[in-house]
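Hi support team,

I'm filing this because I wasn't sure whether my run with zinc ion finished correctly. The job status page said complete, but I'd like someone to confirm that the output block is well-formed before I use it downstream. Pasting the exact inputs I used:
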Amino acid sequence: MTEKKDNLKREKWSKFCPKCGKQTDEFFESMCKDCFKQGITLLVPERLVSVSVCPHCGGFFKGKERTSIEPAVETAVRKAIRKKYGPETPVEIAGLRVELAENKRSAHVSITVKAEISGVEIEETGEFTAALKRAICERCSRIAGGYYAAIVQIRAEVRIPTDEELALAENIAHASLGESDFVSKEQMLKEGLDIYVSSAEYGRRISRTRAWSRAAPTGGRFRR
Ligand SMILES: [Zn+2]
Ligand SMILES: [Zn+2]
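And here is everything the job wrote out:
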């Protein structure tokens, strides 16, 4: 009976953190909370960002996708933490500042991130410089190569379009530009104007635009 009591007593008093020796009742992966927290690194800066910058248009890209540096950093941080600590790990970006170097070859990133790991909230602040690769984007390399996917033919019925109508056509083409669209060439012909465009979808957008209805006799015909 006495022996049992002693054992219970010893057990109650022998809960120590094996790492720092501190007495504790709360264990996280068999360590005290402080030691557990110390063992966690949320930010691994060198693997954070892989963004390229196009020297022609100055756009930022993640693969072929146009992006900006902030969301690319956020996504990379979330991904890295969840890869290390599980896909359901709650992650919050509590602060993010990005300063782009003047030559656009690197960006200085200051970030504060919070994550909950094994029920413990961890907050970490880090700073690092991310190198930005220089790569001509798909759009710019296509422009340089004179690429086009469709021709929008600006014609009037039984007459030649007026200068105003052609100017309107150019305005419409310009106003319909999406982020990755471009006009590769405009060719004046005696019967009208041919606009060479980067995608069939963009060409269709130009021909369908409602502004044509105001320019009564002129229309954009679309040819792939
Ligand atoms: Zn400890
Ligand atoms: Zn570009």
